[in-house]
Write a structure and sequence with these properties.
By secondary structure, the protein is of the alpha+beta class. It contains 2 helices and 2 strands; from the N terminus they run αββα.
Length: 75
Amino acid sequence: MEAVKLGLILFDSTLRSNLGVGLPFDMITLRPGTFKGAQRRIETDDPYFRELGVQWSDAITKAHRAMPAPPWDIG
């Protein structure tokens, strides 16, 4: 499930940074060592994907604000 979460975060970031990428997209997951898995289409109204994007954006904003300013004068 961590791989799915990280993959969706990466897709969210790609959607924000590349106008050529858009929803929907199809996701296929396979269990390790098997050919059993699941398929899911992520649409614009997917509540989990939308909430993940909001939380990731908030976390990046907080991390950015916590970073120190550069130590040099850019004048």
